[in-house]
Every structure is written in structure tokens, then in C-alpha cells.
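BUG-670 | component: ligand-complex export | severity: low

The export step for adenosine-5'-monophosphate-propyl ester jobs runs without errors, but we want the raw record kept on the ticket for reference. Input record follows.
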Amino acid sequence: MPDNETTAPSLENLLHETRAFPPSTEFAAQANAQASLYEEADADRLGFWADRARELVTWKSPFTQTLDWSDAPVARWFADGTLNAAYNAVDRHVDAGLGDRVAIHFEGEPGDTRTVTYADLQREVSRAANALASLGVTKGDRVVIYLPMLVESVVAMLACAGLGAPHSVVFGGFSADALRSRIADAGAKVVITADGGYRRGAASALKPAVDEAVAPKEGEPATTVEHILVVRRTEQDVAWTEGRDVWWHDVVDAASDVHEPEWVDAEHPLFILYTSGTTGKPKGILHTTGGYLTQAAYTHRNVFDLKAESDVYWCTADIGWVTGHTYIVYGPMLNGATQVLYEGTPDTPHKGRWWELVEKYKVSLFYTAPTAIRACMKWGEDIPAGFDLSSLRLLGSVGEPINPEAWMWYRRVIGGDTAPIVDTWWQTETGAIMISPLPGVTATKPGSAQVALPGIAADVVDDEAHSVPDGGGGYLVLSEPWPSMLRGIWGDLQRFKDTYWSRFEGLYFAGDGAKKDEDGDIWLLGRVDDVMNVSGHRLSTTEIESALVSHDVVAEAAVVGAADELSGQAVVAFVILRGEHADDAATDEGSARVEKALRDHVATQIGPIAKPKKILVVPELPKTRSGKIMRRLLRDVAENRTVGDATTLADSSVMDLIAAGLSKPSASED
Ligand code: PRX
């Protein structure tokens, strides 16, 4: 921990003295959420959601049925209503006379800025929708978006929504290979990208990855992509295919700024977002329109206590992740919020960049991930202390468990010891926040996401699906359908059923371990499946293993997520090399060379975020008699623990061999 933490009271004392932080009277008096929401939802859960859908969403034609669960586990919410997501996020605010309200304060990493009002956004989204239509995009067509954090990224998503064309945003940090498989799985007609973006003080390229992703490849069907729409951001040279590639500024700027939204059924697909699962193939999580928007708007309003007329909100996520979808684009914009959109990294050009922006824009609601908080802790509290953070009145955390120490630091150093912290648990699959304190109502507790929101039914169960008593641990499940739940995995209904609905009869299995404390509050304990959480990003052990074994030198690979002080978990790979390569790697120099080659290979196959922090060359892997790799034992090794029960190993001497091999220090990535 940083030296300057020594002046703070010891954590144990703090936790002892202030196990929970009740809301201040002042906050509670003005909070959007009231305790009565829980009672209201308990009394009539479907009625509660129907009320939220009418209150927060504008319908072209009203729904008459709230939930149809007859085809469970595929839910249909508000199914006979019609609406449009872009209309709800933008046009209706202009219609309501709020066109001059700032929607986005954009800050580029180099320091360029742009202020976009809701009226500006309406014109821009309409132009983009018309431009996409001129490229042949119509209702139901899929559009892949592969962009940095730009105003155009938000515009592109909303333009697709305006056309009823589901978007599939692919995080700009994913490789060409990862992009290719997502484009193919979604069957995208158009890809929207940029020449590049600014990150860590330099321009990085994006368009070459798209060119590679749509290029013909032996043994694979021709791409479905007809056009690539390219935003000019960095002025770097780009390769150009006439007829296929189109500049955003040529077609969007020239298009009409009036566009009639495509009214769609509530269950019309709004987006597909790929996320890592327990197999090598990412899952295209499908979200539809009416239920998703209802829960996005409801949670954004109540969990962040948004006062749209006065708050300035900032969520630091990338639009390539679900947090960017629900809590940059749809939730805040449905609520007519004013927000900051920042292109770059928190430490460029200096480690106070975020806090400088909080001061500059008087940000009042701030939402980030525990990894970022831990990085800021490491940099030292002098850095945020150099800025005026007094505008902050609520802080949010998402993506991974937040350790109580980081929670306390966040509250004290960033929140001035007054701002409530909402630790929000949810997933790409849940579409919106499910478990979180309600600010102004619930006392907050360092490290616990606490209770299911009104209208949501969550529980912790044991292996036999029995609810555990307070003080017990088990698996997190969701026991009632919720409006923003995934409607399936794109093109693979069976996988949807197998992954989420087969572990416990009638319950949604989230894949997270959890416990209930003595007050019945929920603590999330991390994944219980082969999914890792590195810096709040979801990665699949199997996907990284597949990437490793696709390299010539690797015979076998096993990947585990090992506890890491900064990133929560870190990717650690154990590899067996093929014949002669094993000899090469016997020297320090040789093994460093192999490790670098493998790390680069994973970056090409998946993306830099998946690069193993450590690669350990081993002679054997621990396997059960049925050939299953015992990752639990490898995790013990990776976390420097005494290796646990190894009696089910086919060959019990394997762990000794691995331990012997590990006595030689391994080069690890910084
Ligand atoms: O393990 C949980 C963790 O992130 C997983 C979902 O990842 P993803 O779909 O990428 O969505 C991340 C942003 C919503 C969960 O299964 N997770 C998310 N939020 C929390 C969390 N773990 C603990 N506490 C949280 N607040």
C-alpha cells in the first residue's frame, strides 16, 4: 500500500467503527429513491415494472401485457408495445424543450473538447441514421461498431437504434481475429470504425484491424460486410477500398438531419454484445428494446440518484463493454442526463487527469471500476488532493468485487467522506444493475453490494439450490425474470439454456460465488466458473488456452486467474512446449523469448487485455483420471499457496515436477 496511507486510521478500526454508513439526512431528504419502492415491488412485482415502463419510457403504442414467461427461459416484456430507443434517448428530450441541455461534454485525450446538446445530438443521430440507410442498412440488419471513445461512437449506436438495426459494439482493444469472429457470428452488413484514436499520448490505428477482419480467408465463408464507415479522428493514412469504404464526414455530414425513427416491437433486438464464457467461443448476448430501456433508465435514475437538470455524470467505462451501453448511452440519455465522455487513459498526460476533469466539469456522479481505484491509491492521495472534487456527491463501483480498503479510500479521498458509494453488481447478461444499495435509503457497507434492487429477486443458494441462511455462502442466482434480462445467445438457444438455466432448476445461474452476512447483505466473491475477471474485464480461461495452443511451440496450455493486488485477477498460463522448443526454453534467455512470443500471440488472437501476466513453462499439467485439468491446484501454485488436496490427480507426482520447475524464476510482464 502507498506510504501516504499510513496517516489514515487503520482499516480494521474503520470497519469496526463504521461497519455501515447510513445515508445523511440531507441526502435522504432529496433522494430519488424511497424505501417504499421495496414495498411497492414486493407487493406487486409486475405492476411495479409496468409502472416504471410507463413512467420512464415513451411508447409509440402502449403495451397491455407486462410479462410473458410462457416460453421460459426466453422472456417477453411489454411485448405488444412499440417504441424506439433512439427516440427515447434523444428526440423526446428535444420535443420536451430540452434541446439546449448539454448531453455530452467530450474531452479528447490530446485536450480537444466538444460540447454536444440534445438538439445537436438529434441532428447528428438523424444524419448518421440516414447515411446508414443510404448504405443499405434497414431494420434487423446488424452493424458492428469498432470505435474509440468518441461522440461518434454514441451517435453510431443511437443511429442504429433509430433504424431498428441491432448494433454489436466490439471493444477497440480487441484484435483483428477477435473482430473477425464477432463480425461473422453477427453476420454484420456494415462496420463503423475510425482511422484510429488517441491513447497514452499517441495515435493508435483501428482501420487496419477491420481491413484484416473482413479480408478473405481460406476455409471461411466470404464476409457479410458490404461497407466500412470510417470516422476521421487522427489524420493517419489509411488503406482504402473504393466502393466498400466510406468516410463518415462524406456521407454523414451530407445527409439530412431529419430522420423518422423506425418504431419497433418491445422485443425487437436492440444490440448484441459479445462476452467471454466458459468455452473458447465468445457469446453474443442478445438484448431487446422495451424491457432493457425500462431497467436501464430506472436503475440509472435511482442508483445514481440522477437529478438531470443539475447533475454532471461521468462513467469511465468504454462503450465496448456493457457498462458503456447501459450507463453511458441508454440509461443516462433516456433520463436526459448531462455527462462527460473522455477518450483516453486516466494517467495521460498526468496521473491527475480524471480529477482534473471532475474539477473542470464539476462532475457530481462518478462511476468507475475497483481496478482504477486501486491504481489511484497506488499513485497516492496527493494527486486527487490537488484538485477540487467537492462537486462529487455520489460514487459508483462496478465490474469486480471492491475490497473494503479500496472502498474506504474511494469514500474518504475521492468522496470527501460524505458521498455514498454504490457498489453495483450486474453482468452483460443482466443488462442493468441488479444488486446495489439504494442511495438515501440503504446504509452502505464497504465491500458488499448488499441487496437486490426493488423488483429484482436475487438469492445465494447451496449445491442443492437451497437458499443459504444469513452467514452462509454459495452461488448467486436470480429467481424471477427481470426486464433487462438477456433474451438469448445470438444464434444459439441451446447454449443459452445450458449456460444459465441448467445448473439449478428454474433459477438463473450467474456464475458468481457469494455469501450473505449476518444482516442478510450479499457479498460477491468472484467467478466460480472458468471466467476470469481482470481489471473488471471478463476473460475466458479456455479462450486464452485455445489461443496459446494455436501457437506452433505449445503442446498444451492451462490458464488460471490468480489473485492480483491491482487488477483483481491476473492471467497466469502454464504451458507445455513441444519437443525441441522445451530444450530451447531451458535457458533464461530462451524462456524469455518464448514467453514474449506467446504473449504477443495472445494479443494478436484476442487482444492485449488477454495477454498473460506470467507464463510458466512446465513439464506436465495436473489432470484428473478423466483428463480434466485441475486448475484449482494451478491457482494454488500461481498464488504461492501450499497446494491443496491433490488426491484425485491421475499422477500425483506432477505437482512436484511443476514445483521443481518453478524454482527457477520466471520472467513476468510488468
Ligand atoms: O463476476 C461478476 C463481476 O463481473 C461479472 C460480469 O462481467 P461483465 O459481464 O463483463 O459485466 C461487467 C460490468 C457489469 C460478474 O459476473 N462483477 C460485476 N460487478 C461486480 C462484480 N463482482 C463483484 N461486485 C460487483 N459490483
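Assignee comment: Attached the raw record above. The first strand starts at residue 67 and ends at 68.
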